[in-house]
Amino acid sequence: MVDKIKLNTLKNRFQGYYPVIIDVETSGFNAQTNALLEIAAITLQMNEEGWLICNEILHFHVQPFEGAILEEDALKFNRIKEPKSLLRGAISEQEALNALFKKIKIGLKHEGCRRAVIVAHNAYFDHSFIMAAAKRSLLEKNPFHPFVTFDTAALSGLVLGQTILAKACIAAQIGFDNKRAHSALYDTKQTAILFCELVNRWKRLGGWPLPSSN
Predict the structure, then answer these.
(1) Which pLDDT value is given to residue 4?
(2) Residues of the chain where predicted confidence (pLDDT) is lower than 70
(3) In this structure, are residues 14 and 107 in contact, taking their beta carbons and an 8 Å threshold?
(4) pLDDT at position 209, please?
(5) What is the reported pLDDT for 3?
(6) Which residues have a catalytic role annotated?
(7) Cα 125 to Cα 129: distance, rounded to the nearest angstrom
(8) SS3 assignment for the chain
(9) Separation CA 101–CA 116 (nearest Å)
């Protein structure tokens, strides 16, 4: 019989993965040519009863890398009107990712996990921009798995019958303010709450711990 206390850890719940909620705002859809302009991240933890909850929040405004293509439609969508303005308080990709990776590595060690995994809504998009920025910044010790992600769009489609973030939140009885959407920080917060609800709902329904672990 597996000790239930040991099951109430990120390490055992997610096979050694350390889930980190990520949302990015960019100047287009191409991670190789468009700029990464904003990153928000939320780490998670499990309480003593095994319920997944939000932990620490990190948020960075990012300077466009040299030569990046800034598409007007994308800037209108995320309401970043002047990405090169000093008033944004933006830092380089390298500075932002160094700070993010440092925090994640501390979490990995604390939780005893082997690798971080990006959790995002339509996760391929966010994952591709983080990986491209890390490569441009020559950051070799990237804590994120090179291809594994947890996609809340797919999970919400399964559990809630909704794949759009706003509709999934509403279906899960999580408030969603469309006026605040498309900000990396706000979308990350809502995605984190949604992911916790999906994981915790599965537990409430009896799907975790697995019957063989009881």
Answers:
(1) 62
(2) 1-5, 213-214
(3) no
(4) 87
(5) 61
(6) 182
(7) 7
(8) CCCHHHHCCHHHHCCCEEEEEEEEEECCCCCCCECEEEEEEEEEEECCCCCEEEEEEEEEEECCCCCCECCHHHHHHHCCCCCCCHHHCCECHHHHHHHHHHHHHHHHHHHCCCEEEEEECCHHHHHHHHHHHHHHCCCCCCCEEEEEEEEHHHHHHHHCCCCCHHHHHHHCCCCCCCCCCCCHHHHHHHHHHHHHHHHHHHHHCCCCCCHHHC
(9) 10
Amino acid at the residue 212: S
Residue type, 146: P
Contact 28, 69 (CB under 8 A): yes
Do 95 and 89 contact (CB within 8 A), yes or no?
no
CA–CA dist 40, 29 (Å, integer): 18
Pairing of strands 36-46, 115-120: unpaired
| Structure token digits, residue 187 | 């979308």
Residue 161, amino acid: G
**In a 10 Å sphere around its CB, with 0-12 CB exposed, 13-18 middle and 19+ buried, how is residue 76 labelled?**
exposed
Q: Cis ω on the peptide bond leading into residue 209 (within 30° of 0)?
A: yes
Task: Report how far residue 71's alpha carbon sits from residue 29's, in angstroms, rounded to the nearest whole number.
Answer: 9
Phi-psi sector, 155: left (phi>0), alpha (psi -120 to 50), beta: alpha
Closest CA to 83 of 40, 21, 91: 91
pLDDT of 213: 61
What pLDDT is attached to residue 160? Answer: 98
